[in-house]
Amino acid sequence: MIINKHNDIPEKEYQYNRIISSLGQTESWLTANEALWSHSNETVSLEEVVWEDDQPDTRNGKCVYVKKNGYGAFGNCLRKLPFVCKSEAVLKDYFRCRSGEGIQSKFVCDGHNDCHDMSDEANCASRCHHVIDAEYGSADTKPSGVIVNTNNNYDNSRSCFWSIVTNVGSTIKVQVNTFNTEKNADVVEFRTGGREGEIFLAELTGKLAVNNQPVYYSSDNVFNIRLVTDNTVLQSGGFRISWTTDVPEVFNDVKMLTATTSVQDLKSPFYDAGNFPQEKVFEWKITASTLNVITLEFENLDIGKDSKLYLWDQDDISLDPTLDGVSAFKPKHYISKSKSIRLMLITGREEAPFPKGLYIKYWEGCSISYMSKEGTIQSPGFIVDSYPENVVCTWTIQRPTSETRTMALRFNMFDLQDEQDYLKIYNDTNEMLHTGKGFTGTDDLTNNYEVRSTNGYIKLVFTTNYVLTDKGFEAEFSLDCAELAVSEETRHISTSGYETSFMNTIEMSCDDGYSFVNEGRSNVHFIKCEKGGEWNETRIPNCMITYCPIPPPVHNGYIVESSGVKVDNNVTYKCNDGFTMNGEPVIKCLQDGNWEVPPRCTAATCPVLTTPGNGSIETLVGDGRDFASVVQYVCNPGYETYGNVTTYCQTGGKWSHEPPTCE
């Protein structure tokens, strides 16, 4: 039993058979109720744990570790590697299932799933299922071997399985030496990711060329190969596959690197080989040999969506990372504040095709040259809010040789120790833009201050003294966008003195009678010069003459005159006989390319007729009131009509005759 000194609650003790830790000899991780000293195979029980001063404090991390003096504290969980395995005892001569349960040995390879996870049927030669034990001790030679399946034992209608298992934390390399199977009928599949092979690597069928010998790597300590054949008797030469656990490219310890003034490369294992390691932890420590700072240049951070790269601008990784996810870091370079940088890559689980990997260049000092269309510059230690003492950093910026456009640089942040630390700025052919020792203090370089270069050359020199420091500075540079090639009728108003400078927005408008036809005939449009010297639209809007379409027809009317279809041109309408115009007879072509609303021609109507005494009215044509309606008067029997018997509705809304009388 182990007693927690704070609450005297007894807790169950577990026996762990494997622990991998990256801690020093003076510390251990607390797992359940035991401390396991790093670099040791023995478990050290703790009789009691006493919190260190100011502990427990989860702000330092979420995992508890125990110092050798017995005091406990919270720390960064990233310091602990992920393999802590618990195994329970089983009876002697029993078979231990993968789940930890024990079964009698007579039930192994009997065709029944007695373990409920098929582990008792995994290593059965009679069923062509093989588990290759590739584990080794610290003094042993790392195992390797060959899997051969040729015509001699290449049977039809079979499902053969090989599972290579090595030490936890180790990697298995598999290479296909020769391969010839019945194409699309007999297939070999390669998988990794535990005994179940959850990560698919490749599938081969047919014949591979002699010079084509693909290589695959396990993501963990298990590599699975499965052969499935059909029931046809056609057979080919089979295959020969070699494997080894001696994979020096994959390392478990921290890789120690020394930065010099020469540029060196840091690459993740199997970089650009299509075999990005899965579910691994890699650590690098870079130390400057003589100078105070280190520069990292991020060439490629293609590590997949489930992987993460951490950076510490210090030697102690128990503290929070300086960059918690380097892939999201926008500048191409990172300049340290300290003489040591720690990097930790924790890879995730990806399906093939795998990411390309990690590629970083590094050197000591902070002399950086750019030949680029755009970029971001940060002073050393900018991310940690202060630059180091006694450094001289130089940034030389040049546009690509194929470019002739001008270039600009702007500051997002500028805060130096006044009259102690200085920034010198040069443009074009080393023309000084500063006075004296350079810009210092909080000189207002962030308020519309712009460094411009006509020949694409800008240089910054940053010098710090031996005492106090400050936040530093951040600046962005970019080529200007191409000059606007627009018509004389296109007007443009810039929010900056240089309308083609990056991040500048231009308001564009058209003279009367013109519009941006391809932008929906609008008369005002905005475009922006993006960082990198490209406009945010693929084509620059250009004002064109605005034309209205064919004038709209008017029902029961017609056009009598037109001056054209340009802006401010007119069209005159007239109604047919018997129709009255509602609206203006003249309409105009508007700036937006549409006509004003045309008039309507409505039929003329005559007043309601009064029925004569001793008679009636019958409608012969029309509705009895509209234009051209014909009406007949009928007198009652015994009465005689005096006047016109019929009348019709005329143009202008008048009846043709006075109504008759019946007498």
Automatic annotation (TrEMBL):
The cysteines joined by S-S bonds are C97-C115, C109-C124, C366-C393, C606-C649, C635-C662
Q: Residues in domain Sushi?
A: 479-545, 546-603, 604-663
Boundaries of every CUB domain copy: 128-246, 366-480
**Residue ranges annotated for the C-type lectin domain, each copy included:** 1-86
- Look up the domain of life of the source: Eukaryota
Alphabetically ordered keywords of this record: Disulfide bond, Glycoprotein, Repeat, Signal, Sushi
Q: Does the keyword Ligase apply?
A: no
| Matches recorded under Pfam families | CUB, Ldl_recept_a, Sushi
- Please give the name of this protein: Uncharacterized protein
Q: Which organism is it from?
A: Mytilus galloprovincialis
